[in-house]
Amino acid sequence: MRMGHHGLVSDQFTSLNIVLANGDLKTINSKSDLWWGLLGAGHNFGIVTSVTTKIYDIEHPNWAIETIIFSGDKVEAIYEAANKYILQGGNQSSDIINWSYWLNDASLDADKVR
């Protein structure tokens, strides 16, 4: 499941089993008074012991998370490749999510980075 496409993880819950402070075990669903409270601040109401959730078929099985390590002189080439193959020059499918973060790791040997 991708965040954003189907909403938050908690948006997919259909029921929760919870042990309340008084020791009672309850199954909570959207018809319960505790439903919205549990989705927003569940840890304040008891201990959730299990969750029943919606699941979805994998729509894009050929996409994965990748970690790419490169030197600073490759930044422009990385963005050119991302624009061409992922963002597709602004014509990216709305089903595709791309994000990145940058980390400068001074412990890496600059001469051995690919």
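Next protein, fold it too.
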Amino acid sequence: MQPNLSNLFTPTPLWLDAFFVVTTLLTLGMLYTAAHRVSVSGAVRVLVASLVWLTLLAVLAYRHFFQQLDAIPPHFVLAIGVPLLLIIGLVITTGGRAWTSQLPLPILTLLHTVRIPVELSLYGLYLYQQVPQLMTFEGRNYDILAGITAPVVAYYAFKQKRLAPRWLLLWNLLSVGLLLNIVVQAVLSTPLPFQQMGFEQPNVALLKMPYVWLPGFVVPTVLFSHIVAIGQLIQPILPGSVPSSPSRSSNSER
């Protein structure tokens, strides 16, 4: 079945573009704040690297690089592959693990509130025939639940200290599941050789500026926050590790 590409080059509303740009900058701001609590120099490197990457994605998107659907391998792979390789590098290297283990859990938890404006953006894109309904909270996307619960979880875990680490770990695991669900939906509805759904209204928005920032930056940042949090929370379970807790991370934030 051939996807409907009538909206592949249709421009999106300026107000919706601006809303998503602000959402991306909010994500970057929270990532920078978390890195700044570890070291100023590290935060500056995160900021510069992020801005360079976002600029590169923007330039490529404006040149319709990701809309060249006949390219092999698909150009879209670049947008998601580079940040994933970076995350893997931070996870498997000693220096990367040493840095991520110091990132404050309270900020990493609150970062997930950006998933609320992300889901609102996706709904707006659906209304303008840029993504299929299945990618919204009216379809098969329940990721907004993670965004709504994030401030509640952060409040009870770090402010009230009434949420045990195991429940914070469970919330992160469930939220990762919600994230992976929408990622699979988005990838399989993109008009690429492996498309499996959304043929009548395929996911063309993420091939454009500024929405290429969603798979290229926002989603990897959200995934990174979960991976770091899960790593910190399971560390006390591992043999020979030093016990830690959400309250300890909260104190380090202050």
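About the second fold: Residues 67 and 245 are 46 Å apart (CA to CA).
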